[in-house]
Design goal:
homohexamer, 317 residues, alpha/beta, UDP-N-acetylmuramoyl-L-alanine:D-glutamate ligase, eight-stranded mixed sheet, four-stranded mixed sheet, 11 helices, globular, kinase (chains A, B, C, D, E, F), PfkB_Carbo_kinase (chains A, B, C, D, E, F), ATP binding (chains A, B, C, D, E, F)
Amino acid sequence: MDVVTLGETMVLFTPKSSGLMRYAGDFSTKIAGAESNVAIGLARLGKQVGWISRLGNDEFGERIRNFIRGEGVDVSQVTVDDTAATGLYFKEKLTPGELRLNYYRQGSAASRMAAADIDEAYIAGANFLHVTGITPALSEQCYETVLTAIQYAKRNGVTVVFDPNLRRKLWSEERARKVLQELSAQADIVLPGIDEAEFIFGKATPEILAENFYNNGANKVILKLGKQGAYYLSAESSGFVKGFPVEQVVDPVGAGDGFAAGCLSGIVDGLALPEIVRRGNAVGAMVTMVDGDVEGLPEINRLNYFMNKIEREDVER
Amino acid sequence: MDVVTLGETMVLFTPKSSGLMRYAGDFSTKIAGAESNVAIGLARLGKQVGWISRLGNDEFGERIRNFIRGEGVDVSQVTVDDTAATGLYFKEKLTPGELRLNYYRQGSAASRMAAADIDEAYIAGANFLHVTGITPALSEQCYETVLTAIQYAKRNGVTVVFDPNLRRKLWSEERARKVLQELSAQADIVLPGIDEAEFIFGKATPEILAENFYNNGANKVILKLGKQGAYYLSAESSGFVKGFPVEQVVDPVGAGDGFAAGCLSGIVDGLALPEIVRRGNAVGAMVTMVDGDVEGLPEINRLNYFMNKIEREDVER
Amino acid sequence: MDVVTLGETMVLFTPKSSGLMRYAGDFSTKIAGAESNVAIGLARLGKQVGWISRLGNDEFGERIRNFIRGEGVDVSQVTVDDTAATGLYFKEKLTPGELRLNYYRQGSAASRMAAADIDEAYIAGANFLHVTGITPALSEQCYETVLTAIQYAKRNGVTVVFDPNLRRKLWSEERARKVLQELSAQADIVLPGIDEAEFIFGKATPEILAENFYNNGANKVILKLGKQGAYYLSAESSGFVKGFPVEQVVDPVGAGDGFAAGCLSGIVDGLALPEIVRRGNAVGAMVTMVDGDVEGLPEINRLNYFMNKIEREDVER
Amino acid sequence: MDVVTLGETMVLFTPKSSGLMRYAGDFSTKIAGAESNVAIGLARLGKQVGWISRLGNDEFGERIRNFIRGEGVDVSQVTVDDTAATGLYFKEKLTPGELRLNYYRQGSAASRMAAADIDEAYIAGANFLHVTGITPALSEQCYETVLTAIQYAKRNGVTVVFDPNLRRKLWSEERARKVLQELSAQADIVLPGIDEAEFIFGKATPEILAENFYNNGANKVILKLGKQGAYYLSAESSGFVKGFPVEQVVDPVGAGDGFAAGCLSGIVDGLALPEIVRRGNAVGAMVTMVDGDVEGLPEINRLNYFMNKIEREDVER
Amino acid sequence: MDVVTLGETMVLFTPKSSGLMRYAGDFSTKIAGAESNVAIGLARLGKQVGWISRLGNDEFGERIRNFIRGEGVDVSQVTVDDTAATGLYFKEKLTPGELRLNYYRQGSAASRMAAADIDEAYIAGANFLHVTGITPALSEQCYETVLTAIQYAKRNGVTVVFDPNLRRKLWSEERARKVLQELSAQADIVLPGIDEAEFIFGKATPEILAENFYNNGANKVILKLGKQGAYYLSAESSGFVKGFPVEQVVDPVGAGDGFAAGCLSGIVDGLALPEIVRRGNAVGAMVTMVDGDVEGLPEINRLNYFMNKIEREDVER
Amino acid sequence: MDVVTLGETMVLFTPKSSGLMRYAGDFSTKIAGAESNVAIGLARLGKQVGWISRLGNDEFGERIRNFIRGEGVDVSQVTVDDTAATGLYFKEKLTPGELRLNYYRQGSAASRMAAADIDEAYIAGANFLHVTGITPALSEQCYETVLTAIQYAKRNGVTVVFDPNLRRKLWSEERARKVLQELSAQADIVLPGIDEAEFIFGKATPEILAENFYNNGANKVILKLGKQGAYYLSAESSGFVKGFPVEQVVDPVGAGDGFAAGCLSGIVDGLALPEIVRRGNAVGAMVTMVDGDVEGLPEINRLNYFMNKIEREDVER
């Protein structure tokens, strides 16, 4: 297995009409979850990925498992909880460019993940463990589950990748800052956004923020700078990598997960850091041009077309 | 005010395709709640009705309030809870004639209703108080809220109408039996279904079950017998009233609430008990011929057409 | 040209959900008009048909003309009125088996048809003129237009076919009775329903009602008896023809027009009266099994399959 | 009551596909009417509003009344007309940025409003009466109804607010100019657009046009200048207020009504004229970013966020 | 692996409106294929299943693979063909109870399956090989592929199950009869329908037809008799098993595949022949009550509820 | 007849959601074909047009014929092929501005058009014959059909108009270049795009490329330059004509066909070459502002509004 990841996935309801959701009669559904987005992104790029989670014993849980399994992600470690429901999430398009998210995830099945759910052998069989700052915010039990997974990774030589993914609604600022800093310290590779970096270490330049993460314990830091691209820092090198231009942002949600999938696929492929970041930028950009969190994740040939601006015969522009 | 009622209303999601909900891509939404169904049914029949509840400070709460207010029901006693969400409910059509219901209502805003939400003057201003056995099952606090409302009704000469509305998923059998019996005892008028009556008093004939309720404290008992119609019992009279034939049941959910609305409207109009029951049967039947809980509730002229089988000029059959 | 017909066609709006139309958020549209239904039915059975009408100078008019022309009906005699709109009509499915129709056709373009719209040479070029009792109910001018068309037919040896198609909402009972009787008298062939026959001549048996029409001036009378089939009467013969069984009525509207199209196609083909009626029964039955007025009109091979219960290889039951 | 308004509301049909409406198979529906748009805008901003109108005795009338009542607007003065239908209106999106509107409102229930519909006590109980130039264009009777309402307002010290809302299709240029000028003269506050001002007084600068209205009788003139914002003039002050930038116009219809609602809410709140205009600009801008006439009308907290560009925690951009 | 199956799967387009498909503006899509239906049915009942096929290198191929993999079926043996497209199929609902199927499968990727696609080790690793009479009808190459698979099964002790699944459109009667007879002879277990049995062996009683198959080489014969149920015959026993009553058939397509899945699951579980058949009857019945080929396939607990008519608490009837 | 054209038309399926088509559950359908697009464009501009083609004996064939006939195009020369299906085509919106087209047209009914389908008298009765480079790419037989049609045109004095419409997927580069050059040589008027011109004659300036076509045999060359407009060349004159600005491209497909329809209508009307080209530019631009190939084709008054930027009263911007 190339990468194992761990986290909550929900059914995502999107009103068919924009504006205040009170007027929405019809909704369409997708599935969404930061970590499964990354897993699907990696699978689509040809990597072997596993996703650990807990689902409710309900139709929404079946849907999520089937969808992720259908994408070629290993779901053998997913458990089913008879006592709690699968989480839901509503994405309200208030105006073009203004989204409001509402969650029904409190006490969800995934929030009941436990350290005992983690099979050390499964973690040990992977080259990378990917975790985010969402899971520890779900519950104390989830926090411990993440720590356990990291511990298993470390003692089996599995590289730990951490994406802070700050969710202010889920916990207090104080607790969030403390845990995100703690997990950043334990990770080998960190993928923070500039806002998240400032939340943890205070306002500063990308160079200084990256150094903060480095000094805090990470070997490789890739700092996302939005449309500007990203800044990377390792023992060997550092630098800025420009983002790809996007004609029209259709749906920004999932861009960070696409970035993570792009970077991780590059890391798995053993690319140089600037090439890793460039791939992250490309996948992140591609995700924003399609509605949904995972629908825009590219296969390797579409990614190459996009990165190299190769004109394709089968596409009419 | 003719009637005041009290209870939780949720946004109802219905998959656009039948079968296992895991395959449902699109959902349409309505609103549903036993007590607001009754309130809307009464308003449509020209009665003055008020509905007491608590909603989340969210778009779903706005939708519910606007819809019920739009139907002409007074919503001045509805409170908004900043700390809890409006409840949701999913209606899965497994096969023709087999529905499965899933709730996201645990810890909902309505489950946080409190005795202090009830304004005694508001209750006192009504002729009837309608409550159901769903509300006390939501939370301890809700149970006390119902008791408080009944207490206010009793000391202000307001007639109490109780519909058991057994929801097995919400509480234990033991607790349900105890509370439903207690509330039946406090009510002047009870509207149980035959299954509910047997749940409370054990298997018996309609006559004996009705007598059980009567002996338990109710003045008027109207026992629903499904397609067969209903049996009524009061100090003055008793008897069976046949149901109306229904060509095709489109959606059975809400039939009991329609029955309650029909009966209550007859009670408000001072009809004789057999006429009251006949109206209940008719409204209940009409509700089942339309999709949704409230969409089939009739206005008085449609009800009369239906009850009297008058051919209408504006309808093509 | 085999048949020329004359009348109003409207855009038909159907709510996507059943029940009271106030709750309908979405509507789908079709086109509908008794006479164009007949014209399309005939064209589908391979006959040469022309349709005379007036449309508003608007998108709905364009839609109607294109649809009917697309079906292979000649629309060269259709005029466009810059001063009035194309009529609309709403079909509300109250319950299974109960439809309510609402019209926005007052002062419509078609209600402004005028005698001058009728080209005598066009009528003369046909073998049959088909008119209904709807057109004279639209306006005084429309009444005169129908009379003019009949006059042109008569003096050019064109057989006149009349379908009463009583629409109570459009005119007074008295006026309706007078005009339907007048037009029945002028027609060579009449296709009344039993209700319409009783409306004109009073309650009686099918045999007597048919004789009434015959004595009133028609050569051939085909009296529709609903599911029972039809009764026919001419100088040569008379008798009952049983209807075809229909597994499930999906939409009854348009059945009478299908019946007319079936009969007329048989008349054009020179069939014997019982065969003509049998074809009318079959087309009428087929129309009721499909949603929409014209969507169920069969081509000749599907009609033959249906009439002869031939098992088809390309259909899975 | 803070504000009473008066006018026609219709059911609005929007094709689900853009381009020529002849190709539109599906339509979605909303409700729309300049004056009820203003009423809903004010109710959403927390004001007490009443709406006077006449509706057909049909499902579309029920829908309109329920929707507006649901929004918290008082509809106790709405009458139902058994002899005329509720008006309809079709909004065709020809291309991005090009809308074509088609009405079925001739002889509608609302066009039959009469002076006798207006209850002087109801007008007297309000602080403001809002009328537009659409109502007098509907019929002579409607024109007199507006005059009557204004007369009642004036003799009861109720401030009259007039929005010209020129609809060229509904009346002749000459008549329109005469009546709009007459009503502008009777109003205390006028809210014309620059095009309407030029239509009434001839081409001129905003300053001169505003002065024309002022000299014509209004105390306060707020002249809408489209994207540029607005110009205001009163005895005390005058000036330009810049509009708010709009990222993407989704649906421009209803912007003027939003502007009126914003201004009126500011007037009710006793703000200074520049602040009143700024609020009008903001609400007008917000309405254009959402599909539908009323769906984008903000509640006070969303309005404040927008006006002050406060970043909200619950929104993801 | 319990069962391996082999065959073509297509994307299934269903018009959103019934009647002639020429009027259908909108289509919804599912996936369908006799053998993958069986595979999914088995997976849902908890069995280990593999599906061998060939897909086009296109989005429809991706969709099919993801869906089937998502259901828990092993797709490791599916190949992708760069030179041919994935097949499509259109299901036209002419009237209630009358379906017409149209295929775009000529020269499809699956029709290019080749004997070399079959990995003997993969077949050898299963307990059962399931094949149908559709695959040999697709192309000569497909015919040989099936023969090869059967040969591998036989020499590795894998039981061969054959479902004739006659498709008249795909080949000549003569060729069909010859090949179906040949494959029936090679199979250990055959699952013909009564019509198919008569097609192969001529009109006869179920008992005689079953004997024909038995004498032809099969050990176990299960003969489907539609609503009547099925007749079974083996060396040890024979008999009729009654079908389950179905309240309303929503979509009959896929019933035979459900029957096969039910029987096969019983065979895998080592049930007695009458119990095997009863399970086939039950799954077949359940499939017809839901739209789509696979959407009604039950999980084991739903199957048990259905077979034992156990009332479930979570379902409202 | 003004113009006769000849070619394949398909049913066009468009996913209702953008992104990879594997996730599309719902599709809407239209019809599309380069030559019928031109025919419809001409009919809408008031010209007499005929369209020659072959359709499958299926519902999709019926739909195409009805739609095109409905637009007022003569379809009397369309033949029906019992042995082949009507072609389909899928338009996948990958991202805003990136379309991918997938065809199911191999062996389609239209690809079986034959020289014998062409009625010399029909061609002789037209003033112009329009052909494109798509038809000869469908099959050898189609290539000969085009040659036959051209031959009939030439010997009957009918002007031949040729639009190269290069489709790389349908044939080899070599063959395509050879045939397009051959047909360009036979045409009186050619309408190539700049890319197509370079494909045939090699990279060069518009002036040189136009001259190449002229020297190759065409009298009039109109070279499309995308947004820049077009360059024209004849014996009498040459020059550039600027394109019309387009606010937002909704769907670029069909623009070239709109251009051809615009030019041809100008040619039929005997306009000067710059005016002809200007009309082509205008129609091409208008087509891109509406979804679908033919839905944006203008009637003459809308075209005039657009070309002259006349403000219309009935449109709200």
